Amino acid sequence: MTMRIRMTTALACLLASGCSSIAYKAQMPDVSANCVDSLPAIAVSGTPLRFPAEGKKPDAKYLEFAQVARCYRSNDGAPRPVALYRLDAITPPAEVDVSVSLSTGGTFAAAVEVLDADFQPVRRYGFSDFVRRGSLYSLTLFLNPSGRAPAYLMLTPDDGQVGKSDTAVGSFTNVVSAPVAATGAVFMYSTGTETRTVSPFLQGGKVLVVARPQSSELPKL
């Protein structure tokens, strides 16, 4: 086996799903204990969203959803992981971007709900509203002044998407050279291999939430 063949075989192994061990594995939120039945109780320790300093870019630091989530027991009695982001420092009109990292180690199937000051829903976005952009799924929300001013952003897993997956199908071409003994010439031929990369949608994974001001009013919620 020539050096070229060894290198291309190793690369194909890295590209193929299941050929190498997964370095990253998403953390799953714990809903087995310390559950609360009140969203205000979660809001007290919620994550505050703030605009970046003037002339600065938002702090693009991904966190595990499990690190910011709390166990919430809703009216049906089922425990659910919930993360609340406080919008009290956000002055509309504003833009909020929610991104989840696509990974074979697990992708957070996020649902986003905008709540008012009384924790009543203003609008909900399922994971199907997120747009795939390269190695990310992202959602942009536009917040404008209104009678029901957005006060909280709530992240939960989208139960309808958890258990599904993102499957990327590609191809890999391997070029092989073989000498022809009678003439001393080199014969070149190629072989093709289909590759599949599967990223499961889970209750946890890496997520980023950032806010920025808007210079003009945008479509209302």
Structural features, described:
The chain has 221 residues and is mostly beta strands. It has three helices and 14 strands. It has helices spanning 3-15, 39-43, 65-68; strands spanning 47-48, 63-64, 70-73, 79-86, 94-101, 107-108, 110-115, 121-125, 131-133, 136-143, 152-157, 165-179, 186-202, 206-213. A hairpin with a 6-residue loop joins strand 12 and strand 13 (186-202). The chain starts with a helix and ends in an 8-residue tail after the last strand. The model is unreliable at 1-20 (pLDDT under 50).
Short description:
This protein has helices at residues 3-15, 39-43, 65-68; strands at residues 47-48, 63-64, 70-73, 79-86, 94-101, 107-108, 110-115, 121-125, 131-133, 136-143, 152-157, 165-179, 186-202, 206-213. With 221 residues, it is mainly beta.
Q: In angstroms, what separates the terminal alpha carbons?
A: 61 Å
User: What percentage of the residues does DSSP assign to strands (E)?
Assistant: 35-45%
Helix content: under 10%
Number of helical elements: 3
What descriptive keywords fit this protein?
221 residues; mainly beta; six-stranded mixed β-sheet; five-stranded antiparallel β-sheet; 3 helices; 14 strands; 10% helix; globular
SSE blueprint and pairings:
Layout: H1 3-15, H2 39-43, E1 47-48, E2 63-64, H3 65-68, E3 70-73, E4 79-86, E5 94-101, E6 107-108, E7 110-115, E8 121-125, E9 131-133, E10 136-143, E11 152-157, E12 165-179, E13 186-202, E14 206-213
Parallel strand pairs: 1-4, 6-13
Antiparallel strand pairs: 2-14, 3-4, 4-11, 5-10, 5-14, 7-8, 7-11, 9-10, 12-13
